[in-house]
Amino acid sequence: MKRRIFLKNSSILGTAAILSPVLSSFAFQGQKVRVAAIGVNGMGWSNLSSIIKHPDVVCTAICDVDANVLKKRVGELAQKGITVRTYEDYRELLKSDDVDAVIIGTPDHWHALQMIDACKAGKHVYVEKPLGNSIEECDAMVAAAKRYNSIVQVGQWQRSQKHFADAMQLVHSGKLGKIRLVKAWSYVGWKSEVPVVPDSQPPAGVNYAMWLGPAKTRPFNANRFHFEFRWFWDYAGGLMTDWGVHMLDYALLGMKVSEPKSVVSSGGKFAYPTDASETPDTLNTVYEFDGFNIIWEHTKGIVLGPYGKDHGVAFIGENGTLVLNRGGWEVIPEGKKMEAIALQKPTDNGLDMHTTNFVQAIQRREAGMLNTPIEAGAHIAVFSQMGNIAYRVGKKIHWDAKKRRFDDQGANALMKAKYHNGYKLS
Fold first, then answer.
1. Distance between CA 100 and CA 19 in Å, rounded?
2. Selecting from 3.30.360.10, 3.60.140.10, 3.20.20.70, 3.40.50.300, what CATH number does the domain 161-348+382-413 have?
3. What's this model's pTM, rounded to 2 decimal places?
4. Neighbours of 323 (CB within 10 A)
5. Which of 177, 195, 206, 382 sits most deeply, having the most CB atoms within 10 A of its CB?
6. What pLDDT does residue 3 have?
7. pLDDT per residue over 52-89, tens digit each?
8. Domain 3-159+350-376: which topology?
9. Would you kindly state where each structural domain of the chain is located, as residue ranges?
10. Residue 30's pLDDT band (boundaries 50, 70, 90)?
């Protein structure tokens, strides 16, 4: 995404204006937004459970390649008095005339094709983060949303939560003094090793070929299925893209920047060197900007991160440091240069605010009121991918923002989407 576009989004969304008003009445009174969900095992189900709280939303269909998951969700929806059609193939769902918007909660390697196909079918989309699994995919997804005039919200729900906006106001006020360093991190203490297990037959009721989709064909392995997919390069980018898109997003918003000059990453499988996962369980990444750096770090199996928090972003200024995460924000003064600010806890439900914002944008036909428009979701997904690319090439790489290229051939090759089984990125 071009720098001017991102900075426009940053100036709009990086302050208190990050929150569009949650209204009790809508421009289209009585008009129901008919929603379907593609992938309902994890966050797809959380997102659907949130959006159907809205009085102007009705769920008409759900889709999953696992018949066991579908059966479970049909039962849970029935308990709420909701009857839905079920699909194994999302393309059949997209043909439905009674679906206005879809939630995409599938593994990362499916996000691009499903979002683009949904836009082609005239649907609006709420797509889980990270937006895409490669830089090329992110670019194609932004182009598709624009081409088909679809309203696309990315599932970075913290952009709809008030205490994050309040923290950005303080950062932008200048009270912290000159900020020379920003740290962002995720310490996933609860995650243990992924034990090596033999390949096996897919569980009964699972359409494994459809689950793989554009990914390389491999025998079924339980380690690569459902939640654990995120530790394998074929399907995701590990903690860097899983959590980095949340915390690094606010690092950029706070500093009002977009494109780094260079990126270098170092780490590896230091915690569980012989387990089945591929992505690093320990990583440090440095993004270079003029006058300051942004540092990302993650670990598995350790919970005590910087400032005693397992995740967050810290703006380290000459007068004080602001520490922000989902649990709130606080200011730690540098000596007596400023007053301390005690922990400011959240007062709202970020996910519910985010799905409400999506519904409002659909009803008003105003993509500009989205709290995480596709351009913003694409940019931070690309930014996080840069960290993984630097790790995988094993060297410091420099980014040319005008040409949208690195100074390294191997790094540029990793920007591309690698599709198999007849699938193509369109």
1. 24
2. 3.30.360.10
3. 0.93
4. 22
5. 382
6. 35
7. 999 999 999 999 999 999 999 999 999 999 999 999 99
8. Rossmann fold (3.40.50)
9. 3-159+350-376, 161-348+382-413
10. low
